[in-house]
Each structure stands twice: as structure tokens, then as C-alpha cells.
TrEMBL record:
Keyword Transcription among UniProt keywords: yes
Cofactor: pyridoxal 5'-phosphate
Pfam family, one: Aminotran_1_2
CDD domains on file: AAT_like, WHTH_GntR
UniProt name for this protein: PLP-dependent aminotransferase family protein
Source organism, top-level taxon: Bacteria
Keywords tagged on the record: Aminotransferase, DNA-binding, Pyridoxal phosphate, Transcription, Transcription regulation, Transferase
Signal sequence, start to end: none
Classification via InterPro entries: Aminotransferase_I/II_large (IPR004839), HTH_trans_reg/aminotransferase (IPR051446), PyrdxlP-dep_Trfase (IPR015424), PyrdxlP-dep_Trfase_major (IPR015421), Tscrpt_reg_HTH_GntR (IPR000524), WH-like_DNA-bd_sf (IPR036388), WH_DNA-bd_sf (IPR036390)
PROSITE patterns in UniProt: HTH_GNTR (PS50949)
UniProt similarity note: In the C-terminal section; belongs to the class-I pyridoxal-phosphate-dependent aminotransferase family.
GO MF annotation: an example: pyridoxal phosphate binding
Amino acid sequence: MIYAEVMKSIEQQIDNGELKPGKRLPSIRSLAKQFDCSVNTIIKAYSELEKKHKIYSVSKSGYYVVERVPSGHSGSADTGAIDFLSAGPDKNAMPYRDYQHCINQAIEVYKEEMFTYSEIQGLPSLREELTRHLRELQVFTVPDRICVVSGSQQAIHLLISLPFPNGKKNICVEQPTHVSMIESLKVQQATTYGIEITERGIDLERLEHLFKCNDIKCFYTVTRFHNPTGRSYSNKERRKIVELAQKYDVYIIEDDYLGDLDPDKNQDPMFAFDPSGRVIYIKSFSKVMLPGLRLGLAVIPDFLRDSFLSAKFATDLHTPVLMQGALDIYLKSGMFKAHIQRMRSIYSRKAALLQKAYQEKLPSSVAYSVSQSGFYSTIRLPGLVKAEMLIEDLKKENVYVDDARKMYLPEFTQDSVIRLSVSQVEEELIEIGVQTIARVIKEQLNKVPQVKFISTTSYFP
């Protein structure tokens, strides 16, 4: 087809730099003359290129080349890089086109709300829909308790600073935990106690001691697919932690940001064991959809609602209406359910490939964690091999991993743990990447004094 030839010609000129970002493309009539085709053929070619976000139109001016944003290192065969560092959703599986339709529809449906200040708590229609959505996660609540937030991190940050009815001041967190939580604690200068995650989970006796003796206001936990270890609690563990919180008057902030990816419907959130307000449930749509949406929710108990909304008002007035409206439509349409089914399949397959590669490629002296979600896992390096040293050598091999040091409180710091995520790595590159990591570890082991190692098959730092 001639329009396909036109598209290919323009794309090649964009890719090789002949057509620079912002440059005006030839007029429709001149291009029709050049290719000896109809005007409609060129219009179709330009329309398809616009859908691919290669060009854009300006009314009464013409078509222009879109500015290309460098992506850094990408875990794709095209670049040769293997990116275990980035932890966003699989870019090739994101619902860009579906969500674009939802945004366009939201502009029509919510156009009046967009020109006024919206409700701090979130669009009523979206909160109604989120109530139905949460039921599938075994979170039963009412719209009045749901607060739409600009990403779950906003809810976490606000809750750290708010006074709780127990009158206590200190925070307890898992160790390690994600970087944004560490930074929030640091910025707010919160007195924080850590509880270490091991291959056996957390030490419940140690957690009870912390709750009993350290004026703990709340315990922050990622109950499913923990970042960075990938670990999930069992229902038995969840229930026991809730019982300890009830016994010692501690609140739980349960971050279930990847709960949608859990294929096991028998797994219940901590909220299910105490929906009264002892457990504050939060979740995000960033990791399973589009991070740029910055949309999340918090199920806030009645006694915190007013203070939470006042604090939220002070930070952003309200969460962007257009994004809320688009999510409302996306959930109602059934698109989200179909998307999550695809995501579960993709990530569970990648997780299995990663675990197999660990088992077959890593030296026996290396310990690792595994995750069914495919998002996160950790490797503890053996002997005197340090994460910083390994990361630099891996960069030379075009393999990228994350240094876990920043995920620890100062007194828990580890310098021999790296985090991997396969969420954005193509399946055929997972084994190759792990094989490279294994080879570089062996090379570094040969450079340092040999010590006696204890062989393990899995590990949670």
C-alpha cells in the first residue's frame, strides 16, 4: 500500500535524523505529488503516524515531528541493554490506546469539574467505583472512607506526620523497604524502628517487643510482593500481626500496591482481619498501569478523615480531575479487569524465568529471594564482593541493577545486596542477564581473598 510506503519513508527520515524534532513536514499536496498518489493517501499516512506519536498536527499550520525523549537504558534487544534497574510496568503491555480513549471521554464527561476546584476526597463517582473494585481484593468499605490520592506515596507521607488516637509518636518499618518510604521518614525526621525481613519472614517475637516497648504509633508494611525482596506474607502471618497491633494499640499502614497482581484469591489483606480502622489500607495504580497517572487510594478510618483531608488539601488541593475521571471510566468499562489478567500472566511468566535462571546460573555461594509477581527480587553477594563494585562492572556489560543500600535505615545498612526487577526486561533477555551477573560475580570473587561460604538456595535480606 502506498500510504505504508509514505509512513516508512518518513519514519526512516526521523530515525536517521534527517527530520529533526519540531521540523515541519511537507504539505499534504506536495507529498502527494512526490509519491504520485492521492491526497487521501497522504492524509491516511499522516493520521497513522500521529497515532504512533511520531508526528503531531497544528491547526492551519501543518504536521510536525514529535520531540523524542531519550529513554536512558532500556531492557530490550534493540539496545543491547538488559535493564533490571527500572521497576515500572512492562512498557510493551501498557494500555496506552485504551486509556487514551478513556481520557478523551473523561474530557467530555467531566468538563465542568475540570474548570472548578474538585472535592479534596476525590470524585464521588470514582469513589463509588473503587468501592466495588476493592471488594475483589477482600477490602470491604464505603465510599466515605475512600480518599483518592496523588499516588500512594502521598498517603504514606501524610500518615507519617498525622497524630493518631493512640497518642504515640514512633514508626516501625520493614527492613529493607522502598526508597520513597526511607526518604519520607528522613524528611519528616520520624523516629523509626526497623524489623528485618528474612527468608522466614519477620520475627514476630521481635515485632511484639517493638510494639510493647517503643511507643509505636504505626507499623508500615508491604504485605504482597514486597519491595525490594518480593516476599508476600501468609494469611497466618497477617492475622498474627493484626492481633499484635490490637494488643498493643498500634495502627497498621498496609501498602497493597501490587495486590491486583496476586493470582491467589485465597490471600487476604490485613485489612480483612480488622476493617474497623486499625488497618489503614492503601494501594496504587501506578505499578500495574501507567506510573504517570499518579493515582492511588487510601481507606481512611473515620477518626482520621478530617485531619487527613486537611493535610491533603495543604499539599495539592485535590487530585487531578481528568486523571480521576479517566480511571473511573476505565474501571467501569471492564478494561481494567482485562488488563490485569494480561499483567498477571506476563509477570508470573517472567518471575518463573528469573527463578529458573537464578537456580541454574548463580554460584552456590550466592543467596537470593524470589517473587511470583516478577517485579522485585534481591541477591545477596558472597564474601567480600560489594554491590557498588559489582554494579559498576555490570554497567560495562550493559546490564543494570539497583544498589539496595538506600533501602535501609542507617543501623540496618547492607552493602552486599542488589535489587532486580524483570518488569521491563524482555523474556528472552532474563537468562542472559542473570548469566552475565553470575559471570561478573565469579570474576570479582577471583579478585578477593577466598573465604568459606555457606550454600543456600533462597534468601530475603
